[in-house]
Amino acid sequence: MENYFDFYGILLKFNLDEQELKDKYFKLLKTNHPDFFINNPEKYNMALEASSKNNEAYKCLSNFYQRANHIINLNGEFKDGKLGVDFLMEMMDINESLEETKLLPNAEKLKSLHSEVIGIEGELDLELKKLTLQADGNDKVSSLLMQAIKEILLKHKYILRLKETMANIAAPN
User: Fold this and answer.
1) Which of these three, 46, 74, 102, is where a domain ends?
2) DSSP 78
3) Distances, alpha carbon 18 to alpha carbons 62, 66, 80, 81, 115, in Å
4) What is the chain's Cα-based Rg?
5) CATH of the domain at 15
6) Residues 97 and 157 both lie in one domain
7) CA 30 vs CA 4, 26, 41, 69, 116: distances in Å
8) Is the dihedral of CA 80, 85, 90, 92 positive or negative?
9) I need a surface site. Which of 41, 81, 132, 163 has the fewest CB within 10 A?
10) pLDDT tens for each residue of 84-132
């Protein structure tokens, strides 16, 4: 797996200096722009490849959740994650309520479910921020801390799916 932090020569951190990242991205964008090599097919192709990699790396690292998943994936020991039964039951209850709302539209119920999901998302975001700041402050991050971060990232994926489902229910036919 490509390490985008190494690609930009920046420290591997969950909460990185976004301006530094942006500066590195634009510097590489200017250096490797394919238009500069239009008369040299070999250099043009190399510049195309470098630009593509630069865009891919920036897209990943500029998004907090993608960056966090990238860090977890760089750490090969955290491939699988399991979620607690309580969280899964809560998600199942919300999904069942959403299914009922699809069958019998109820704007108030949908609004209530949306508030509930936003509340869960907020709690997860606060916990994730706390854990990632803790991880960034240590030279060697414990596997328990990384596992806790991975678990929150998995929960976040559930929340995104719920929000997408709610958006589809609320969308006019």
Assistant:
1) 74
2) G
3) 7, 14, 29, 28, 30
4) 21
5) 1.10.287.110
6) yes
7) 18, 6, 18, 28, 45
8) positive
9) 41
10) 899 999 999 999 999 999 888 888 999 999 999 999 999 999 999 999 9
